[in-house]
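quick one before i forget lol
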Amino acid sequence: MQKAISKYWPVFVLPTLIAFIIGFIWPFLWGIFLSFQRFTTVSKTTFVGIQNYISVFQDSTFLHAFGFTAVFTVVSTVLINVCAFAIAIVLTRGIKGTNIFRTVYFMPNLIGGILLGYIWQILLNGVLANLQKPLLALDAKAGFVGLVILMCWQQIGYMMIIYIAGLQSIPGDVIEAAEIDGANKIQTLFKVTIPMMMPSITICMFLSITNGFKLFDQNLSLTAGEPSKMSEMMALNIFNTFYGRTGWEGVGQAKAVIFFAIVVVIGMIQLRATRSKEVQQ
């Protein structure tokens, strides 16, 4: 069997590799090429060098979107992971109905982002109206809070599942040894449980950060960047630049390339920082 796999592995790898090249590698390289062009259709392009990139950093809406996205990502990442970790600890204590709670907490992750945005728009605007406060489309701060609430509600259940798997993988004798040595629950949590959970924390932090930066559907349906693009995040800003501003297609593509680079760099920094704290079980 092993010899057959060694002999015929290209037959199995080739279809996936071709699909990956067609669906990702080629569009990515073509996108980088277009970021140096001025165009309205991809069949007629004019080389403009780095002018598109210069225009990106002269566009105040993109710079504001970057700041808004960065703050949103930090706040949502902290809240999602703290809440998910706390719920995971509670649900691994053997309480009754644990499986029901796990299912209920995970279900929001199964709902599409566009639908979630419209649902929460109705709910939050109803609450704001009763409180006689400006609606989401009229208050950027309310839009920010709404996006954080929506993101947490959708993602906490997914991260909770990962944390539960991590908690269940910790050897019971390690916890018992800490208790025998006199460690209380708080000391056990911070000195034993969390260090042993670092692989799960690495995964959840990476997913939270990248999901926060890439957020598009929920931003489009919940606030649509209103008022006056003050709640517009980076992905929505790129979309609006490419499809909403005639002659700015090249600038929109340059924004997309910069956006990709930012997400990759931040993701790699986070992975390196958290993996360095992982311990061997």
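fyi The first helix runs from residue 2 to 34.
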